[in-house]
Amino acid sequence: MNYRLALTALTALAASLALAACSFENHYESLADQFTRAAMSDNFSPVETEIAPGMRPTDAQIGAMADELSHLGKLVSVKQVTQGCEPSWYCFSVKFENALYHERLQLDDHGKVVRWQYHVAPPGAAL
């Protein structure tokens, strides 16, 4: 019986650690991650409620984003950075399997995205 109790405790501990590992992403990193995944999948439906009215990209723009980002491999991480980030923007280093990108978000007074921009990191940037 003690074996079963110990196994249950270890399972609960492992689950807690797994959940804690996911919680290190802050709100803005999570938002950038959602936008990146939406662009990669050519489907902005999951982020529609996060976009300010009238600011949704066109289907052609979303398709172009998908064409560019979907070939970069798996999305590995999205980390917020402050160095070189202009006031009123949230900036991120976005690591894919095959490339490093820089992204930035600008929000309105209600916390809705009014701009989302991305570009490939300069040559020599660490992956």
- Secondary-structure-based class equals alpha+beta
Strand order of the largest sheet: 1-2-3-4
Output mean pLDDT: 85
Q: How many individual domains?
A: 1
Which CATH top level class fits? Alpha Beta
Count all strands and give the number: 4
What is the CA-atom radius of gyration, in angstroms?
Answer: 18 Å
Silhouette: globular
Walkthrough of the structure:
The protein is an alpha+beta fold and 127 residues long. α2 (27-40) packs across α3 (59-69). The protein has one domain: Nuclear Transport Factor 2, Chain: A (Roll). β1 and β2 (90-96) form a beta hairpin. The longest helix is centred in the N-terminal third of the chain and has 21 residues, at 2-22. It starts with a helix and ends in a 7-residue tail after the last strand. Strands 1-2-3-4 form a 4-stranded antiparallel β-sheet, covered by helices on one side. Helix content is 36%, strand content 24%.
Produce the secondary structure layout.
Layout: H1 2-22, H2 27-40, H3 59-69, E1 75-81, E2 90-96, E3 100-107, E4 113-120
Antiparallel strand pairs: 1-2, 2-3, 3-4
Helix pairs in contact: 2-3
